[in-house]
Amino acid sequence: MLLKITLVLFIFFICFQLLYILYPLYAVNKTNKGTRLKREKGISVVIPAYNEEAIILNCLQGIINLNYNNYEIIFVNDGSQDKTLQILNDQLDLRPTFKKLPAVKIPHQEIKDIYHSELFPKIYLIDKVNGGKADALNAGIEYAAKEIVVTLDADSILDPDSLSAINSSFEDKNIIAAGGLVQIQQGFRGSILKPRPTFKLRGLVRYQIIQYLTSFYLHKFTQAKLNSITVIAGAFGAFRKQALFDANGYRKTVGEDMDITLKIHKLMKTNNRYKKGKLTFIPQAICYTQCPETFKDLYNQRIRWQKAFIDCILHFKKSLFRHLGFSASFFLIFDSFLLGTLSAFPTILIPITLLIYINGYMVAAALFTVAIFLAIYQGIVMVIVGARFGMNYSGRQLLKVLLFIPFEAITYRLLGLLFVTTGTILYFKNKNSWYVSKRIKHSQQPTVSKISLNKNTI
Amino acid sequence: MLRNHLFNIFFTLIFFGLFSLIISFYYDDVSRALYDPAIFPTDKSFDLQACQSWRDDTRQFVVSNENKAKQITVLMYHRVIPEDQLNDTHVQANGDLFSTIILKSEFDEQMQILQDAGYTTLTLKELELFIQGNLDVPERSIVLTFDDGFKDNAIEAAPVLRDHGFTAANFVITGAVNMYDSAYKPGEYQYFSVDDLHNTCDVFEFESHTYNFHKRMEDNTPYLIGKPDKLVQEDLEASIVNLDGNTQAFASPYGAFDKENIQLFKQLDFNMAFTVIPGTVKQGTDIYQVPRKEVLANERIQDFKEKIGLQDGDT
Ligand SMILES: [Zn+2]
Questions:
Q1: How far, in Å, from the CA of B210 to the mean position of ligand 1?
Q2: Both B135 and B194 in a single domain?
Q3: Cα(A219)–Cα(A283) distance, rounded to whole angstroms?
Q4: How far is B184 from chain A (nearest CA, A)?
Q5: CA B290 to chain CA centroid, nearest Å
Q6: Could B32 and A359 be called an inter-chain contact, meaning their C-beta atoms sit closer than 8 Å?
Q7: B163 and B30 fall within a common domain
Q8: N or C, where is chain A less crowded by C-beta within 10 Å?
C-alpha cells in the first residue's frame, strides 16, 4: 500500500517535471531580451527596511542606475534599531516633507515622519513604528503615488532595465501582478551594467543558484502560462496598486508574499473586475539578491520559508477551488503541498521501508534513477532557457555548471528534504513564537564606507 | 529560430528515448513489487503449450502378451524436502513428520529402485489409453503424480526425475502459482512460480488441482462438495485457462468429489480424474475415479516396494 502511494506520488512528480522541462524549452524558442516602450507608466518602488545598515546602500546603488524616469522610491524604515536611517540620511540628505499623503485604505503602525531626499528627488523615506514586514509594506502602499507598486527587499539590487521590463509587461491591462527574476548576486562578477555570470563559488551558493534559476526560468515561467503562480517572491514583485487595496493589503505573517499572491488569486475568482486578471512572470525584470553563504543562515531562511508556506496553506485551505482558481488550487495542492511538503516525509521513510521490504531495493533504484535523470535534464533545459534569455555562462563556467548539476541532484538537493520536514514540524511545535520576521545576517557584509553612489559601479 | 526548433525536437527525442530506456529497464522490477502474490489472475495462462507437447506423443511399446501390464500403480506425492532443511513447520504436534513430506534422500532412493527395476513412467495420456484398452504397456509401468504444486517439486524432485529419465504429472492449484519468482524457502508453504513451471515442464505435465478451491468450509466440507456447482465450475474453468486449456486430467483436493462433480468433469471435457483411494489401475477402471497410492513420510523400502507390486528378490 505504502509502495502504491509512493508510486502514485512519483508519477505526479514525473508529470510536473515533464511539464517544467518541455514547456519552457518550446516556449522560449528565440533569444528573448524584451522590448522597451516609449510610454512609461508610473512605478512606486516600496522597500521595507528593518536593521539593514549593512546592505541598504547596495540597494540604493541599483536604484541610481535605473534606466527609467517615471518612478519613485519609498524606503520604509520599520523602526530599525541600527543605523539604517542614519546611513540613508547621509547618502540622500533627507528632509521632512508634508507633501506625501496617504490613501487611508489600509491600517498600519503609526508613521513617525516622512522624508524627501534633497539629492535624489525621486526618493522618499517613511519612518514608522516597528510592525513587521507586512505592516511596512502596507504603509509603503498607502503613500505610493504611482499606478504600479513594486515591492523590493532591502538586500536586493534592481537591474537597470528591470522597471522598463515591468512597464512593458503591464501594458497588458489584464496583468494584475507579476514576479521578477531574482538572481543571486554572488553568481555575478563585474559592473551592474554588464554583469557576467560566474560559477566559481562555494557549493552551497552554487546549489542556490541552480535552485533559483530552475525555480524562475522553468517553474515560474510554466506556472505563469497556466496562471498558477502561487508565490510572487517578496524580494521582487510588481502589482497594480488598486489590486493591493482591493485585497486589503498585506496580512501580518511570515509568508506575506505568498499570502498576497493568493489574495490576488482570490480577487480574480471572486471580484468581477479582476475576472480576466492574470499573474505573470517577467524574466527580463531582474533583481540581484544576496543568498546565505553558510549552512546556518540558509537553514534559518528555509525554515522560515517552510513555516510561511504551511501557514499560508492552512490559512487558505478552505478557499481552495472555491475562492481560488482551479489551476492555482491544483498547483498549490499537487505541486507545492503534495510533492513539495507531504512527499518529503515518505521520501525520508522510503529507504527504510525498502530495506525492510526485501524485494523493494530495485524499486528504490528505479525511483532514484528517474529522479536523477529528470533532475539532470531539467538542469540542462535550465541552462538552455537561461541562455535564450541572455544568461550566458562562458565556456569554462558552463562546464562547471553542467558538471555540478548531477552532483547537486544527489547531494545538496537532499537538503530540501531536511528544510521542508523540520520547517513543518517546527511550525506545529511552536506556532506562536515564529512570526517575528528576522532578516538574515549576511556573513559577507560589505563595508559601508567602500560604497560610493556613482553610476556604473557595484 | 529554426536551429532552436530543430534542437528542441532533437533534445526531446533523446530525452524520451533515454527515459523509456530507464522505464523499460525497471519495468519488471516495479510491476513485480506491485504484484499482489495472493493469487494468479484468472484470465492469464502459464503459456506452457510449447514445452508440454511431449505429453501427447504416445509411445508404441513393443511388448509380448506375457510382458503386458495387467495393472498399473499410480503413486501420489506432495512435498519433497531435503533432510537438513526440515524445521518445525514440517513436523506435527507429536514430533512426526507430516505424512505428505518425503525426504529428498528417500525420494532419491525410491526413484533408484524404480530405475533399477526397469520401470517406465507413463504419461497420463498413455494411462488413459491403457484404461480404455487402446494401448499395451510394459508390465513394469508406473505413473508418478504430485499434488498441490509446491516449489520444492521444482527444486528438489524435478532434478531427480530428470536424472532417472522419468516424468510425472503435477496437479497444481493454479491460483497459488506466483507470477514472479522468489527465493526458494523450503521452510514455508511456497508454491510454483511461473518460472518454475517453465523450468520443469520437461519432466512434469501440469494438470488441474482447482484454481482456488483447495479449501474447506467451516464445517470441514471440502469446497468441491460444499460450494454451489456454478462456483465450482467457474473455479475449474479458471484453472483450465491458466493451464492453456489443458483438460487431460483433474485431481480433487482431499480426494473429495460427488456425482455432480463427475458430471462437471465430463462437461468440462476432462479426460480423466484422480482420487486418493488406494488401488491399482486396470483396463476398464472408472476413468473419472482413478485410484492412487500415496507415498507416506518415513516409508520403509519394504512398504514402498509392496506399494508398487515389486516382490523382494525381483529386480
Ligand atoms: Zn491437494
A1: 9
A2: yes
A3: 12
A4: 14
A5: 17
A6: yes
A7: no
A8: N
Whole-number Å distance, alpha carbon B77 to ligand 1 midpoint, is 10
* B314 located within any domain: no
- ipTM for this prediction: 0.76
Residue among A25, A360, A365 minimizing CB distance to B8: A25
CATH fold group of domain A32-294: Spore Coat Polysaccharide Biosynthesis Protein SpsA; Chain A (3.90.550)
The Cα of B119 is separated from the nearest Cα of chain A by a number of Å equal to 44
Q: Are A179 and A237 in contact (CB under 8 A)?
A: yes
- Please determine, for residue A451, whether its predicted confidence score (pLDDT) is greater than 70: no
- The chain B residue lying nearest A8, using CA atoms, is B34
A264-308 confidence digits (pLDDT tens): 998 888 888 888 899 999 999 999 998 999 999 999 988 888 888
CATH code assigned at B152: 3.20.20.370
- What is the total count of domains within chain B? 2
Residues with CB under 5 A from ligand 1 (ion): B 147-148, 253
Residues B182 and B112 in one domain: yes
How far is it, in rounded angstroms, from Cα A264 to Cα A258? 10
Per residue, the 3-state secondary structure of A23-86, as one string, reads HHHHHCCCCCCCCCCCCCCCEEEEEEECCCCCCHHHHHHHHHCCCCCCEEEEEEEECCCCCHHH
CB contact burial A393-419 (16+ within 10 A = b; e otherwise) = beeebeebbeebbeebbeebbebbeeb
Whether B291 is covered by a domain: the verdict is yes
B21 touches A at CB < 8 Å: no
Q: For chain A, say whether B13 makes contact (Cβ under 8 Å).
A: no
Tell me the chain A residues in contact with residue B26 when contact means C-beta distances shorter than 8 Å.
Answer: 362-363, 365-366, 369-370
First-residue to last-residue Cα distance in chain A? 56
Query: What's the CA gap between B315 and B306, in Å, rounded?
Result: 13
Provide the residue ranges of all domains of chain A, joining segments of one domain with +: 32-294
Residue B6 sits in which domain range?
1-34
* pTM higher than the cut 0.80: no
A31: confidence class by pLDDT, cuts 50, 70, 90: low
pLDDT tens per residue, range A156-170: 999 999 999 999 999
The shortest CB-CB distance from B26 to any of A3, A29, A366 is to A366
